[in-house]
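Quick review question:
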């Protein structure tokens, strides 16, 4: 097909591809592409109608020969104009060509097109990942010359090129979003993340971990993990062996000294196969220092209470027996007030020992 400026359709499509691939930003590129297409096709208006899930539409990008907007407010949502005949045309031809606006059966759509002084218009669907995303629309207002079949076939190819550019942008935005979520996960949602080669040398670390040893990731990349850990609850050979058991999650503990602080870290290790013969060991670590300190404090408290129990209970038992032996039964068979208080205190003391640890109470009563 020979175009109006004596370039072939293939050349125009090639130029369009180059334009949409430049680094000006997809919105800027699309605006320039619409201008180029409008001038090439002698159209007065070229715009992209974006279809929303709530059956409304917006004009996402536009170009007009007179510089005026297709609609007064560009980002305003408007109710979708449904026309059964146009829908049938779309199903049959994969585009909508309005040669005469009097053929439009939807009165609202007809009124809009009359207000825009449209003589003829063509709507070409833009598909993103095989789903209808929007329409590329061209309209002629000041001339009634219709598009030929060859020109329509060429416009279908233009719509395909534009769809590809928009799909790339959608994919890029998703990648950027997912990368941001990944970065947030490894830096803020997990305490420590390490990647090791099969010889336990560090190939990656999140900031939380490498900041324990320096200001840059380069300070620890290449180091062997055992050189950074004060203590490990497993041997290096056991950690290296995780690559042979991909279905097993290895859990182990390490101690790390950072300045004057000692950190206790619980690690979950599992192998990840990146390619043939290429295996990495991924480690996700949790800082359990506060829990370890609480366990140590609890152990210390139990030892102190056990010492207290072993020392005090025999003394109390002797006092209690002396008190009970010296208490006489009353005329009514009741015991004296001091006897009742002694029994009550003894019961509370036994409950206290059992709540600390049943072993304490058992040990005390055997003494």
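Suggested answer, residue by residue:
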């Amino acid at each position: 097909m020979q175009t109006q400026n004596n370039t072939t359709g293939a050349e125009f499509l090639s130029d369009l591809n180059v334009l949409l691939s430049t680094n000006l930003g997809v919105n800027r590129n699309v605006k320039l592409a619409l201008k180029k297409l409008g001038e090439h096709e002698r159209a007065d208006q070229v715009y992209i109608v974006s279809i929303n899930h709530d059956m409304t539409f917006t004009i996402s990008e536009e170009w007009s020969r007179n510089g005026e907007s297709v609609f007064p407010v560009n980002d305003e949502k408007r109710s979708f104009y449904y026309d059964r005949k146009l829908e049938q045309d779309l199903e049959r031809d994969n585009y909508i060509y309005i040669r005469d606006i009097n053929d439009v059966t939807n009165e609202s759509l007809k009124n809009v097109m009359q207000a825009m002084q449209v003589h003829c218009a063509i709507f070409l669907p833009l598909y993103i990942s095989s789903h209808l995303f929007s329409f590329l629309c061209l309209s002629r207002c000041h001339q009634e010359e219709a598009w030929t079949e060859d020109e329509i076939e060429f416009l279908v190819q233009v719509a395909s090129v534009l769809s590809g550019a928009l799909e790339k942008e959608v994919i890029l935005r998703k990648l950027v979003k997912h990368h941001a979520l990944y970065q947030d996960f490894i830096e803020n949602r997990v305490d420590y993340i390490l990647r090791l080669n099969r010889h336990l040398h560090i190939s990656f670390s999140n900031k939380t971990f490498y900041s324990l040893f320096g200001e840059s990731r380069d300070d620890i990349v290449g180091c062997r993990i055992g050189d950074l850990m004060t203590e490990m609850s497993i041997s290096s050979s056991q950690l290296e062996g995780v690559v042979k058991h991909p279905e097993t999650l290895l859990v182990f503990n390490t101690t790390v000294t950072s300045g004057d602080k000692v950190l206790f870290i619980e690690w979950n290790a599992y192998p990840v196969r990146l390619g043939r013969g290429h295996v990495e060991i991924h480690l996700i670590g949790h800082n359990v220092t506060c829990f370890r300190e609480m366990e140590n404090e609890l152990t210390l408290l139990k030892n102190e209470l056990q010492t207290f129990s072993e020392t005090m209970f025999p003394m109390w038992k002797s006092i209690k027996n002396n008190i009970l032996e010296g208490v006489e039964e009353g005329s009514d068979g009741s015991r004296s007030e001091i006897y009742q208080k002694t029994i009550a205190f003894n019961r509370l003391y036994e409950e206290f020992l059992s709540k600390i640890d049943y072993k304490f109470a058992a040990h005390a009563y055997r003494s």
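Why it works: Residues 149-189 form the longest helix (41 residues). The chain has a mean pLDDT of 80.
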